[in-house]
Design goal:
It is built from four helices and twelve strands. The protein is an alpha+beta fold and 185 residues long. The chain folds into two domains: 113 residues, Cupin (Jelly Rolls, Sandwich); 68 residues, no CATH class. It has a four-stranded antiparallel sheet, covered by helices on one side. The chain has a two-stranded antiparallel ribbon with strand order 3-4. The longest helix has 14 residues. It is globular and about 55 Å long. It starts with 14 loop residues before the first helix and ends with a strand.
Length: 185
Amino acid sequence: MPREEPGRFDAILSTGEVERLVCETGIRTPAFRLVRDGAPLPAAAYTGDVAWHPSSFTGMADVGRVAAEHAAGATIVLQALHLHWRPAALYCRDLERRLGFPVQANAYLTPASARGFDVHHDTHDVFVLQVDGQKRWRIYEPLVELPLRDQRWSPGMRPVGEPVADVTLPPGTPCTCHGAGRTRP
């Protein structure tokens, strides 16, 4: 149910904390990645290595290059926040306790004029928390009913017909309108 409560999820992850994670913490791949228009960007385009003894820190965010790619329309994907971001980890553990299923957390920061991913389906259920800005979601009937991990989306698959749901989520809104097998942008 739309609540339109800007700041509602700031205790889990705010836009300011995303900026801090990327710019100040030495985040490394695979904890983050960049995608644009449905395709991942090569990590070499926005990461670098820091020489250290006895071995280098590899895949570290090059803040200037990450910022330039984001300004050019790239989505910043923070992966597995349930493993390294305490507020998200606590939220996920509470959901796991209540639901009785494992929960993971990723975050996506997409510029307003851009699209991070093409239409696709996930092989797991998705619960969306719209933290900041707004996003339009178009949900289609599944092409693969309850896909297994090895039944990933492929570019040859395209949704048929009109969306069964077309919603724009404002900030502070949860959405539970996506189950495994549903296709979405």
